[in-house]
Amino acid sequence: MLPQELNFKAFLKKENKLVKIQSIDFITNKVTYSLNIFDDKEQVACYKSFEANFNEIELIQCTNQKDKNGNFIYEGDIVRTFESLVGIIRYGKHANVTKNPINLGWYIEWKDYSNSLIFSNQLLAFSELANNPSGLEVIGNIYENKESLCQKQ
Q1: What does the alpha-carbon distance between residue 66 and residue 47 come to, in Å, rounded to a whole number?
Q2: 109-134 burial string, b = 16+ CB within 10 Å, else e?
Q3: Mean pLDDT, the chain cut into blocks of 10 residues (153 residues total)
Q4: Sheet harboring 77-81: ordered strands across?
Q5: How far apart are CA 71 and CA 138, in angstroms?
Q6: pTM to 2 decimals?
């Protein structure tokens, strides 16, 4: 079995923009990304590579799962289930009342519509949905469109 390709994005803090990472250099603490830029002089669109220091970005890892539309699901993505539940994909330690008290890994932090706050006692380990990711749809992310958290349907 071949190892899965690491798939990252970065949120550029100053530019308030999400970009796909081409490379990560842990020696120089920089990432490389490219943007489609229109060259006025040449009158043509082209890709140009840029670098950013680790302190200028937030690194975002892919779960290596896809949603029902075939889009990769990333940390910080806002997802909706077929039951119209909305939550945020997170990674780290979390409590799961149905299994072990503390888990480490991907989980979904669900939106609580009663008081418009995220509540952490209603977590679902992402692995519990990984067998059926077609039940999830990415509707935004916490970096570019937090308003997607307000969507119920």
Answers
A1: 26
A2: bbbeeeeeeeeeeebbbbeebeeebe
A3: 69 93 94 82 77 96 87 91 81 64 72 45 51 76 76 51
A4: 117-125, 103-112, 86-94, 77-81, 136-141
A5: 8
A6: 0.75
